Every structure is written in structure tokens, then in C-alpha cells.
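Recap quiz, item 2
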Amino acid sequence: MLPHHPLDETAKRPTRYWDQDGLPEVMLGLLSIASSGVFLVGYALPRGSSTAQAYAQVGPIIWAAASLAMRWGLKKLKERITFPRSGYAAALSEPNPTYWAYALGVVLLVGAGVLLLNVGGGLPEGTWMAAPGFAMLFAVALLVGGLRYKLEHMIYLAAFSLILGAWMCRIGAGPQGGLWVMMWLGTAMALTGAVRLKRFLKVNPRPQDLAI
Amino acid sequence: MALLSGVKQAEFLYLLRETSLTKGKLSSHLDRLEQAGYVEIEKTFRGKIPLTLARLARQGRTAFHDYRKALNGLLH
């Protein structure tokens, strides 16, 4: 018998399906590492050199290729690992008004945060806004995601993002601070995703009989 | 119905795991819902593996929406 659940809760349950295996988190983490890595390499090259100029042309292509590769990789891994174990469900494509409310909330919170930081003037001299900006943006997105999809670890990742942003401000990381936030947060997400994937594989053995 | 209302379509295995029903019971439920016109069943293949997909029909979505609305009205 279907356990007693409120209908609304049961109808919302499939929305958590997309990250039950941790794979999107792993991919997002790897993409963050790759993206920040591409730009950090650019920063490391001597300014004005021919190498830097050549890299400026190639870097964005590498970034775009990495994004596409991650998307393709996620699709293939879902087909090979997730669907044979827990079945396949396609998300609804209809626009959800709640989603846009969340998105607007994120934009407003980030804007308020940036404004507060500017008005407060509490940042050390020379600190680039990228680090706290990135950190806050990620923190808000993770917090909203964690609350919406009931993923507790995302709230801890949000706190980690804020700590990273504060640390980058503290050490005066400069323009690269935001990229380092992305790199470390990406690493954390890849690790948490991997742990969840391991747990998913343990709990969901591949069924012997897939024919219905 | 509640599970299918949250997705565009879902595989039989997904419904099996989420409902914790046996294969027979779930098949029976889906058959009855299909006969009532609430659910559409599509039998296809993923590579060489047979795949049964279920989705709510328009009539089913409307019926479920009305039911949910009525239930929420009674509860609140």
C-alpha cells in the first residue's frame, strides 16, 4: 500500500528526483573547477604576452567545450547508472511560477547584499567585489536549492561558500578571489556529490529483470 | 496519480520504487487508470531493453487537479 502522504508532498517528490544520485552535483562541481581553472590560468599568464593573447581566444572555447562535455556526460551517466536502478522520469516542462519567484528572490537578495557591502564600507582596502559577490550568489542559490529540494547538505555548502568569500576578503585575494571561491566550492560539491552517488549505488542495486 | 502529476512521464520502474507496490498491483492500478482515460501507457524500448512509460492524460490531470482542490478545500 502507498504510505500515507499528503497529496501535495507526493506530487512534489519527483522534483527531488533529479539529484537523488548526486550526479548533477558532481558535474556542477567539476564544471565549477574547470571554469574557474580556465580563468585562473588566464590570470597566471604574463599580461600582454603572445601566449596570453592566444589563450584569450582559446580560453572561452575551452570553457564552452567543458560545459557541453559536462552536460553530455551527465546525460550519459544518468542513462547508464541512474535510470537502470531507479527508473526514468521526465520533468515537467511547464513553467513553474514558484521558480520565477525564487529566481527573483535570489536576484533581490544578491543585489541587497552587494548594496549593503558597499554602503557598509567594511571591506578591506583593495578587495575586489568578485569574491564576496560570487560567494553570496552561490550561497543564496545553494540555500534556496537546499530548502526547496530538502537537501540539508546544500545549506552547509551555502555556509561554506560564505566562509570562503569572507576568507578571500580577509586575505585580500583581489580579482581572482571570486574564481578561487568557485574552485573550492566546486571541489566541495564534487565531493559531496560523489558521497551521495556512492550511497545511491549502495541503496539502489541494479535490478536483474528490467522487462515489465 | 499524485506521482505522475509531478512529472511529464515516468518509467514503470520509477513508479514501482516510489510507490513500493508489487509489479502486479502497480500494473493493475495503471490498467484501471488507463481504462478510465486518466493515464496513457506507452511501451517502447531503450536500446534493447523494453520500457513502459506512463503519463497523465489531459483528462487525468484535470481530474487530479479537481480532486486535489476539493481535498484541500475540505481540509482547510
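Chain A has one domain: 15-203.
The beta strands of chain A are 89-91.
End of item.
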